[in-house]
Amino acid sequence: METNWEELYRDGISPWDKGAPAPPLVNWMQKNPGLLQGRILVPGCGFGHDVREIVKASPSAEVLGIDISPTALQAAGKLPKAGSETYEQMDLFALPDTLKNSFDWIWEHTCFCAISPARRDEYVDAVHGALDNDGQLLAVFYLDPYDEDHRPGGGPPHGTSREELEDRFLSGGRFIVEEKFVPEVSYEGREEREMIMRLKKAHL
Ligand SMILES: C[S@@+](CC[C@H](N)C(=O)[O-])C[C@H]1O[C@@H](n2cnc3c(N)ncnc32)[C@H](O)[C@@H]1O
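That is the input. Now the predicted structure with S-adenosylmethionine docked in place:
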């Protein structure tokens, strides 16, 4: 069943939101100063903590946060601005032509996990289609958030696995792996359960 994100936000149910940017993003930007530049898309940005953190680290970047939930974006817009960031209510699966092949980077954080497995190939198509030539997807994927011993309340509705990520993103040859590792820092409870992947759009 598809999650009704707008209803959750309207009901004040957003346990995935930690009120702060994703620790692996902060850590990665500290280790790679200035690498995130140009036009940057943040799909499923929620309240926009990652959007603003990217703008703080790369003030000249043009960062667009999109989300299908108007309530989340309204809240994001009320938080103190970091710089020139913008937000738009938009479905990642229905990007306008003007945004296709146009981004230098996409930052992904618990949007893929939020998408039902039945639509994840469409997700891969959407991010691939949004990136310009040589554009890169920088992602922290939340792996297997639910199992018998570990059922955190704050996780996205669907987990993923290393195998699924490799199968969906890499098997078609559309992306080249630039980096892949388990981040050193995570939100509490997600330690060792995340995977950073930096994937460059391949020339086919
Ligand atoms: C688990 S939340 C994560 C939000 C944010 N990245 C964070 O970590 O706080 C998933 C987000 O993806 C958004 N979302 C789900 N499907 C989407 C779609 N097709 N297009 C754009 N946003 C979507 C939801 O509204 C929600 O804000």
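The mean pLDDT is 92.
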